[in-house]
Design a protein that fits this description.
alpha/beta; Rossmann fold; five-stranded parallel β-sheet; two-stranded antiparallel ribbon
Length: 182
């Protein structure tokens, strides 16, 4: 069964809370979140840092979008190891994790994003991280891949478009090629 760590932006895109993404991006995030509820395992931390991040950005009372419905499903399935697996991560400082796969890279990450690679690395199966359209991950995924952590961009074209806009001074330096989609 497929195991994955899901970045918060996948839920936000599925909720249509990111106005600049394409319709294809929204549809892909919706399809993936709905699919994993029946055929996959979501991996989170046992300190509920990821859940807290999800809850800060979504609303389950009442749910307004597919990301909210996914969070409600996740909360209902917390005790079901066939659907949700939890790993321990160790905070070494505020928003820094012992399990982060590349300690030098950790400081470059946005603090809320650091937990996702830490959780993937702490799990024995090294589950894939689903990323929607956060373009900063384009610069980070190659170093994570060197440590055995896979990032799957559900909205690769959108992420690349945002990267060109957000980092215009880097246009002379090509962004890393996107990882192969599964």
């Amino acid at each position: 069964m497929h195991k994955t760590v899901i970045d918060t932006n996948v839920l936000l895109v599925a909720n249509q809370q990111h106005s600049d993404v394409s319709a294809e991006c929204v549809a892909n995030c919706i399809e993936r979140l709905q699919g994993i509820q029946s055929t996959g395992v979501v991996v989170i931390d046992d300190s509920f840092i990821i859940l807290g991040e999800y809850q800060n950005k979504t609303s389950i009372t009442p749910p307004r979008g597919v990301g909210d419905v996914f969070l409600k499903w996740l909360l209902r399935n917390m005790g079901n190891p066939a659907r949700v697996e939890m790993v321990n991560v160790t905070l070494t400082d505020t928003d820094f994790y012992a399990e982060f796969p590349d300690q030098a890279l950790q400081a470059e990450f946005d603090p809320p994003d650091r937990v996702f690679p830490a959780v993937a690395n702490a799990h024995p199966d090294k589950p894939t991280i689903w990323q929607a359209a956060d373009c900063k991950w384009i610069d980070w995924w190659p170093a994570l891949a060197e440590q055995g952590i896979t990032v799957e961009f559900l909205c690769a074209a959108d992420a690349q478009r945002f990267h060109k806009i957000k980092f215009p001074r880097q246009r002379h330096v090509p962004a890393p090629a996107m990882p192969e989609s599964k």
